[in-house]
Amino acid sequence: MKKHELTHLETRLKELRATLTSLADDKGFDEFIGAIHRPGFTTPAEAALFNGVVDSMAEQAKAVLGLKQMLLTGAAKVELNPQPLPP
Questions:
Q1: Which of 72, 63, 3, 58 is nearest to 29 (CA)?
Q2: For an engineered disulfide with 42, which of 18, 46, 54, 76 has Cβ 3.0 to 4.6 Å away?
């Protein structure tokens, strides 16, 4: 890879790491869990929406985890291809 390509890839990897770290932050979830137990929290339609969003987010998170593992496993298998020495 060219230097600017490596720099771009490194920048994107750092952005990805920051995003995934942010996703792992559980702030807000405890409040939401507390709210769902209050009487009259939501209507049946809203409950269906919340359930759908949570199910979708959980599946997408699993998919991202699988992609991360694939990326790291693939990177570990890459062999260096040294340039041949001139005759």
A1: 58
A2: 46
CA 33/CA 49 separation, integer angstroms = 15
How far apart are the C-alpha atoms of 77 and 71, rounded to whole Å? 10
> How many whole angstroms separate alpha carbon 6 and alpha carbon 65?
23
In the predicted structure, residue 26 carries a pLDDT above the cut 90: no
Contact in structure between 20 and 64 (CB atoms under 8 Å): yes
The single residue listed with the structure tokens 């694939």 is 70
Amino acid symbol at 86: P
**Angle made by CA atoms 51, 56, 61, in degrees to the nearest 5:** 130
* pLDDT classification of 50: cutoffs 50, 70, 90: very high
Residue 79: is its pLDDT beyond 80? no
Contact yes or no for 68/20 (Cβ under 8 A) = yes
